[in-house]
Amino acid sequence: MTSLTIYADDNSGSPRTITDYAQIAKTLKDIGVQLERWQADKVLPADADQETVIAAYQASVDKLNKQYGFKSLDVVSLRPDNPKKAEMRGKFLAEHIHRDFEIRFFVDGSGLFYLHVNGKIYMILCEAGDLISVPANTTHWFDMGENPDFKCIRFFTTENGWVGDFTGSDIATRFPDFDSHLAALA
Prior knowledge:
Helices cover about 25% and strands about 35% of the residues. By secondary structure, the chain is an alpha+beta fold. The protein is globular and about 45 Å long. The model has no long low-confidence stretch (mean pLDDT about 90).
């Protein structure tokens, strides 16, 4: 289930968790983050390739492309048996920004976005069907867990694709990781 947990960025006090989708979307909209749900035009097999995935969401992809003029998009998939899963996870665990806004759509599986905005950490557990847009220059990080299992469409306004500028902060180490967060929600 999609959820939003909000902490003070010094990790003081008790966090607040929201599970009502409409309330999550409203709370995120207040900080400039878009969250919405998409539906595939057809059922996808687990091993669907990039072209098949994009075709299943073509109407929604075209709508976003028309609205934002994306220069590139791709489909990234990571499964628990991937021998490079720890290396790939590590790439996104440190706080960073992007000069352009970031849009991710979860075709399947889940992942945890951490947004550092106005003295708070917004932890958004995204699951299949969720589309999230992180504004440009928003400090954030992402965790997919020790055994990642997800497939996402990534949209880019630059031809270079994913380019992160790391802040050098260790803030990500002071908050629950993906696996700990899921355990706490259970």
